[in-house]
Amino acid sequence: MGWSLDKRCLAVSGGIGGAKLALGLTQVLRPDQLAIVANSGDDFEHLGLHISPDLDTVMYTLADLSDKEQGWGLAGESWNFLDALDSLGGETWFKLGDRDMATHVTRTRLLAEGRTLSDVTAYLCERLGVHHALFPMTDDPVATMVRLRSGELLSFQHYFVRDRCEPVVAGFHFDGIETAKPSPPLLNSLRDPQLAAIVICPSNPFVSIDPVLAVPSVRQELSDSRAPVVAVSPIVGGEAIKGPTAKMMDELGMPRTALAVAEHYKDLLDGYILDTKDRQLVQQVEALGIATTVTETVMLTLADRRQLAEDTLNFVDQLQSRP
Amino acid sequence: MGWSLDKRCLAVSGGIGGAKLALGLTQVLRPDQLAIVANSGDDFEHLGLHISPDLDTVMYTLADLSDKEQGWGLAGESWNFLDALDSLGGETWFKLGDRDMATHVTRTRLLAEGRTLSDVTAYLCERLGVHHALFPMTDDPVATMVRLRSGELLSFQHYFVRDRCEPVVAGFHFDGIETAKPSPPLLNSLRDPQLAAIVICPSNPFVSIDPVLAVPSVRQELSDSRAPVVAVSPIVGGEAIKGPTAKMMDELGMPRTALAVAEHYKDLLDGYILDTKDRQLVQQVEALGIATTVTETVMLTLADRRQLAEDTLNFVDQLQSRP
């Protein structure tokens, strides 16, 4: 790693895919060198609880508490609450584990006391031993709505979890985004003079990254930052590693390629990281005015996560040393 | 059992002790013959949840789901939520089991939707297979406050659970009682022309029964009812079977006797059921103008509960056949 101790990185993450690279970055950057902003557009109120799925996935992943098989939730979780809720006729489509419930109850209670989501996230991270900064894109309520081809608007978790991404999508809308303000730690990070890399993790561009970019001023701040913005392609060989990204691209009439994702981010990107399977796309991406590098982006092991983090930061260094 | 099918009984219950006799009564009376009103003065908001300890104890007991050893909570409960809450620095003095959480979450959600506590209790009972009517004394918020000898006012659960009844009490106050209305099913039951017995269960007189009696008009309705009012002494041989009744009597300067409890209820009672250990008090209780019967009141087995229920109803019959 050529990264000097005075350089800092901001990672933009959704849930499972983003959390993998975020974890890799924590392996090579010290807590004062890395900040992670997570999508809070998929936050929702359920059973009276404020649930922040992406923040929790990143938090549990960084705390080494996550269920590594499914990617979300806690390892060794029990489901007695949900089982009893079922007996009481409650809604059980969103899987709330017994230990996970403590996170939601605590978050809901602290928010009700008037604390911000950024504060609450910092508190939870501290209690769980997460040392790198993690915060939401905004402390204001934003709700990702999925516009279906049928014309119906579906709240994100209903689309994503309850309906298992089965409906055909036509677009997305972020309720409340117009009046949302970037969270204070996000603004601090973006304006940090030592910020030297902005990494868009391989998360879903439409429902994980776009909500972050859609918070007023955030896209502009990213563009204006002296730090290069690089993205890791969430599409490898025409497939998403996890989740509905590829299916959404089909339904939105986009080619199911890493190139199409680069085009989606367009002018925002200084660099783009393609998987070795997508080597043939280098020229087309570079034709967009975006620098590229090619490496293994599929992260199966912790070593893979760390390696991709190193490759990403080295790529940023190359971009910075160019004239 | 001499009880004809057109006679009905209203049982007034607190938590553990009352639930035992209530369960006994369900063994001898059909669902349309028995209604149980429980104290809701020990309800409280905790971690953003509306918790109704006495209603839950009776409900779980009647559903045959209760932990028979401790008397409260669910049998075979797991504690993973509470354990995780502890890791997050949350308040864990009130023991919330994983399955029990489903009750509190459901109740809180339904109350937030605008349903009454009576409605919610009926809903939960139906889901858990409780066929006899169970309802709170009021749908309005009432909070039992414990006045300590030190002058401090302590909310009931803080006194009872968190501080394990250790502080010395000087009295009790039921916050909100002045404007509380009896719950509709309680009023219905009290005004039912077929009501033939009102049974005050062996619960704590000060913090379980008195809150019910203190709801405006309830004590008067009980007095005015043609149905005899009988109480089962919660004190046996100078001791409470469970809970702080005897300790409270000491601290309030009352003799620690079944007689003192009868005097506490005074003009309300038509009959009083003494344990065989307290046979020597018969004359003194009768001198108060209260009829007595003596039987085994300590309920260890289900058969004991049923037997005491039968003895109680037979005693009521004797009272009614008197001139």
Summarize the structure.
The structure is a homodimer of 323-residue chains. Chain A is 40% helix and 19% strand. With 323 residues, chain A is α/β, with parallel strands linked by helices.
Descriptive overview:
The structure is a homodimer of 323-residue chains. In chain A, helix 1 packs parallel to helix 2 (53-62). The first copy, chain A, has a single domain (8-321), classed as CofD-like domains (Rossmann fold), CATH 3.40.50. The model of chain A has no long low-confidence stretch (mean pLDDT 95). Chain A is built from 13 helices and 14 strands. In chain A, the strands form 4 sheets. A 7-stranded parallel β-sheet of chain A has the order 5-2-1-9-10-13-14, with helices on both faces. Chain A is of the alpha/beta class and 323 residues long. The first copy, chain A, is globular. The longest helix of chain A is centred in the C-terminal third of the chain and has 20 residues, at 302-321. Chain A binds chain B through residues 47-49, 74, 77-78, 80-85, 87-90, 97-103, 105-106, 108-109, 112, 124, 127-128, and chain B through 47-49, 74, 77-78, 80-85, 87-90, 97-103, 105-106, 108-109, 112, 124, 127-128.
